[in-house]
Amino acid sequence: MLEDITPYIRALAVRRVGNHGDIEDTVQDVLLTVHAVRHTYDPARPFGPWLVAIANRRIVDGLRRRGRNSSHETPLDVEQETIPSPGANFQERSLDARAVRAAVAQLPPAQREALRMLKLEEMSLKEAAAASGMSVGALKVATHRALKTLRKLFERQANKP
To answer: Is residue 54 scored above 90 in pLDDT?
Structure first.
């Protein structure tokens, strides 16, 4: 049904939304709303007016939201844009990476392993539990403790004169 009504909603949005870049966002917003409030449709009543009422309200809401946002924004000219060169902050990044590696090396082995699997390799808890032999709860605790320890280490380094 959503695929069938999409061209109609897009036609409504094209007539009302001035910026062509916002049309697809508006269409998606209307489709999400129709999906979320589908339980309010009464099959004894016509579908078209129900759909148009939802679409018109979401379109107007989007126009208001964009109007509020644009009233607070200042457009930049091309001359005002700054784009750093790719190597501009290379030295800081390498220092940060070394500091993180050194801090992770100070962690107990279980915490270091849990952090590696869950945060660096992005394994799920089940995958990490199977790979490490630790329970899901133990992995959660080890990861939490590892992050807490790293936070404390970096706070101490930041507070040093």
So the answer is: yes
Provide the domain limits for residue 17: 2-69
Residue 43 placed within a domain = yes
Distance CA 153, CA 147 (A): 10
Distance CA 136, CA 128 (A): 8
CATH number at residue 113: 1.10.10.10
Same domain? For 61 and 7 the reply is yes
Contact 32, 54 (CB under 8 A): no
The domain tally of the chain equals 2
Q: Which residues contact 88 (CB under 8 A, 6 or more apart)?
A: none
Nearest to 113 by CA among 128, 103, 127, 100: 128
Evaluate if residue 99 carries a pLDDT over 90.
Answer: no
Which of 7-11, 76-80, 112-116 is least confident? 76-80
CA 25 centroid distance within chain: 16
Nearest to 16 by CA among 55, 51, 44: 55
CATH number at residue 54: 1.10.1740.10
Q: Quick one: pLDDT at residue 53?
A: 94
